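Sequence design from tokenized structure. All designs in this work follow the same two-part layout: the structure record, then the generated sequence. An example of the structure record is given first.
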């Protein structure tokens, strides 16, 4: 049976598609969204529709999908406009343009010029959009107020291409889409009836609701919009199970007992029903006359569950074949002959031969043909069921799982580092993030998260940068590189925010309320004072004093208006500490004088205590011991109601000062400081005090 030749139980979707295509031929676009859980046949329906309409000459039909997660990481969140970029790439590769008008001629030249760098759809879009605007003598943002320039360019490009040949775009699994793809879809939705573009989309509701993905907002906002249709894939009825069964058996005679068994086991879920029927097409329960075995329902060899059906597919595999599929699973639901051959340490032809044999023998994987991935044209394969991918991925022991992802990370990292092509690097970076996270390679993950954010900057969207930053923040910041990355992330966030784009609707939280924190987004985090302060503190602790000084000066100069007086004071204290430790007493003196002259203006006792302590340290280093004693005496008078940390700081400074003057009470203060550091679990300080004693 050719599975893509039927859509039993979902003819109503075919009717909606026919209506949409009729409107498309009249120049009116629409959007059709079909939802269903795993096994309901979303991908099957899209592939069936694509195969049916791809050769039609009166419109251009292309199919694409969003990237499913690798491991536990949602790759799609770091790939701006991924699905639409792939769709435009496919449209451009097959576009036939008639030179009847000046615009058509200009567009033809633009398309031809873009073909050699088709991997850089971003730049092709810029050129085509420019031609369209010149032809129309208007800009998208005159109509579309809430979109940034890149989204407008993508919108213009799709519109311009659709006015040459109507577009039929199919996108699978859009629930994983990045925020900009959702925003572009929203822009298209506002004007979809004005342009010959028909977009058919599949998504999984449960993923949206449990993960609060960006596409969730779209489904609520456009629920009742003209030209946008939402349909749920329905389960099969008993009659449809009968119709489906006839496609798996020659000369099938309707058998109620058999069909009821399939219906009850599958609960009418199309994918599960198909798997049972595929099983029975190999192990037929019918005799040569088409009669069902008399002991069918009581037969002990009947599969008790879908898992047992899958397991019987797997049982026919040799140990080597299982290992091959486990290796394939590490790259993702989709995997490439390029990567798998290197993981298996065999040449490409041997690898493809083995994968072809597995495809023919089991149907567990299928070839999607040659595609460009990681900058190389390679055959792409896909697990035919999510269950298969999960099964083989879970079959890997922890060490195997980590080792495979480490190998993939190293392969991609080598390609990334050797390449001078920024477009290729942009494509590879998100995959490097996913695989390095799965392998436990934190340094590569942090580095590539920043690289991904830097590449996303050209799209002018801060939520994608925020997604990268949120992942980065999960890791402990352990070194100077991490401190610098934190600062660069914040600079990127501020840079995209300064473009003035308010791109996104708030996240929907209930029928009558919106999450206003989402609209604030990074606006409240453009200048993250605590993060900057932590970065400087880490520099001082790790003896990176030049870095601490440069960061402090940068913050005081650039973010003066963003900080309150207390925040400015804290940075000045850290800067003074850094100057003291580098023996730059001239600059330290300037700040100490300023702080001492301003101390009466502060009502905060904790800050006053800090000022007295930093002043004491300065005077101690320049050998002005009377002033050092005076400052510490002032600090001591404030200690009764202050946190233990400030008591520890003051005790330590007094002990150090008295030790410098050979005062016999020095040991008493240092022991008190040591005991307090132990109480506060400051282990490094505790050891330092032990050394001093």
């Amino acid at each position: 049976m050719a599975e893509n030749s039927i859509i039993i139980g979902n003819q109503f979707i075919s009717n909606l598609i026919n209506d949409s295509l009729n409107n498309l031929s009249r120049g009116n676009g629409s959007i059709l969204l079909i939802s269903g859980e795993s096994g309901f046949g979303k991908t099957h329906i899209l592939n069936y529709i694509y195969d049916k309409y791809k050769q039609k000459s009166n419109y251009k039909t292309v199919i694409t999908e969003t990237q499913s997660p690798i491991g536990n990481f949602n790759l799609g969140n770091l790939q701006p406009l991924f699905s639409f970029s792939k769709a435009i790439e496919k449209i451009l590769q097959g576009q036939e343009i008639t030179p009847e008008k000046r615009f058509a001629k200009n567009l033809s030249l633009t398309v031809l010029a873009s073909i050699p760098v088709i991997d850089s759809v971003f730049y092709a879009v810029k050129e085509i959009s420019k031609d369209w605007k010149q032809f129309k003598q208007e800009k998208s943002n005159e109509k579309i107020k809430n979109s940034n320039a890149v989204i407008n360019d993508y919108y213009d490009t799709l519109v311009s291409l659709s006015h040459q040949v109507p577009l039929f775009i199919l996108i699978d699994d859009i629930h994983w889409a990045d925020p900009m793809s959702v925003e572009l879809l929203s822009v298209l939705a506002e004007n979809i009836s004005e342009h010959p573009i028909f977009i058919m989309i599949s998504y999984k509701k449960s993923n949206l609701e449990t993960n609060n993905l960006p596409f969730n907002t779209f489904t609520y906002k456009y629920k009742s919009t003209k030209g946008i249709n939402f349909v749920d894939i329905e389960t099969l009825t008993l009659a449809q199970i009968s119709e489906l069964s006839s496609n798996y058996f020659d000369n099938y005679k309707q058998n109620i007992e058999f069909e009821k068994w399939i219906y009850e086991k599958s609960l009418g879920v199309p994918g599960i029903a198909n798997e049972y029927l595929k099983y029975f097409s190999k192990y037929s329960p019918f005799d040569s006359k088409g009669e069902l075995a008399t002991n069918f329902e009581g037969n002990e060899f009947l599969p008790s569950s879908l898992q047992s059906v899958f397991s019987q597919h797997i049982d026919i595999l040799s140990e080597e074949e299982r290992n091959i599929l486990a290796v394939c699973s590490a790259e993702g639901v989709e995997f490439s002959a390029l990567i798998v051959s290197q993981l298996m340490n065999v040449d490409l032809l041997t690898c493809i031969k083995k994968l072809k044999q597995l495809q023919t023998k089991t149907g567990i994987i299928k070839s999607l043909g040659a595609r460009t991935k990681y900058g190389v044209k390679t055959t792409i394969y896909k697990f035919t069921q999510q269950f298969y991918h999960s099964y083989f991925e879970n079959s890997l022991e922890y060490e195997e799982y980590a080792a495979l992802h480490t190998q993939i990370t190293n392969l991609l990292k080598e390609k990334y580092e050797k390449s001078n092509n920024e477009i290729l690097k942009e494509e590879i970076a998100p995959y490097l993030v996913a695989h390095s996270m799965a392998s436990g390679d934190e340094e590569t993950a942090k580095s590539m998260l920043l690289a991904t954010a830097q590449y996303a900057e050209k799209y002018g969207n801060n939520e994608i940068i925020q997604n990268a930053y949120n992942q980065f923040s999960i890791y402990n910041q352990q070194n100077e590189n991490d401190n610098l990355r934190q600062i660069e992330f914040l600079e990127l966030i501020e840079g995209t925010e300064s473009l003035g784009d308010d791109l996104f609707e708030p996240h929907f939280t209930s029928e009558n309320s919106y999450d206003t924190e989402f609209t604030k987004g990074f606006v409240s985090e453009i200048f993250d004072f605590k993060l900057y302060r932590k970065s400087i503190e880490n520099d001082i602790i790790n003896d990176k004093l030049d870095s601490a000084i440069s960061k402090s000066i940068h913050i005081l100069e650039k973010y003066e208006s963003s900080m309150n007086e207390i925040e400015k004071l804290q940075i000045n204290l850290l800067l003074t500490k850094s100057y003291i430790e580098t023996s730059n007493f001239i600059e330290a003196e300037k700040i100490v004088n300023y702080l001492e002259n301003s101390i009466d203006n502060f009502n905060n006792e904790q800050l006053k205590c800090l000022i007295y302590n930093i002043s004491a340290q300065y005077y101690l280093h320049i050998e002005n011991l009377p002033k050092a004693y005076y400052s510490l005496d002032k600090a001591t008078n404030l200690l009764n109601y202050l946190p233990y940390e400030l008591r520890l700081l003051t005790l330590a400074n007094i002990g150090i000062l008295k030790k410098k003057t050979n005062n016999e009470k020095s040991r008493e203060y240092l022991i008190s400081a040591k005991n307090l550091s132990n109480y506060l679990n400051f282990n490094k300080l505790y050891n330092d005090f032990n050394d001093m004693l």
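Confidence is low (pLDDT under 50) at residues 1-5, 95-106, 108-119, 498-526. We note this feature because it recurs in several other targets discussed in the main text.
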